[in-house]
Amino acid sequence: MKKHRPADGPAEQEREEELAAADTQAEETGDEAPEGRGSGDTEAVEELNNKYLRLYAEFDNYRKRVNKDKEELARYGNESLLYALLPVIDSLELALKHGACDPKDGIVQGVELTMKELQRTLEKFGLTRIPAAGERFDPAVHHAMMQVEREDMADNMVAEELRAGYRFHDKVLRPSLVAVSARPKKDADADDETEETFDNTNTQTEEER
What we know:
The protein has helices spanning 10-29, 39-76, 79-98, 106-124, 185-208; strands at 127-129, 142-149, 158-163, 166-168, 171-174, 176-182. It is of the alpha+beta class. The protein folds into 3 domains: 36-76; 78-125; 128-197, Nucleotide Exchange Factor Grpe, Chain A, domain 2, CATH 2.30.22.10. It has 5 helices and 6 strands, in the order ααααββββββα.
């Protein structure tokens, strides 16, 4: 119940009594006092609350998207630099191939040590070499440059790595250039003849029955 200041005269006292009676009636019936908020004010508050919740949800999504972009930038920010270093690695590997005839040469050993140290450093930043030679051909990481006949390998195997490929974290930075194996034609023809002979034998056996 609202408190009213003491009345200064009969008229004021009568007014105070009317206000007190109105407050008492509002409390008993559960209705709002004459000075209370109307239903329109309640709807406005609910609308403002809904707007706040929507704005908060949008801001939260924006914050998550910004954090994800920051993480990707930190993870893949060195991609262009590492890609530019790949030709340097190719040149060092080529130098080692040419120096394989004299592996005890000081220059060859120095290049080999430099190559190993460079590879260890780049691996710390997420650069790894894609396995190629002896692996099954995978078009997702291997790029076939030629097909070679190999009796000692099954079809669609990487017979030779022509240029190394690399991954940067989970992305293929550069696919491997490879030569893919294929069985010699004579072996394939022999297998076809064997299958044909087997089929003819089965046909003759069925006719004899």
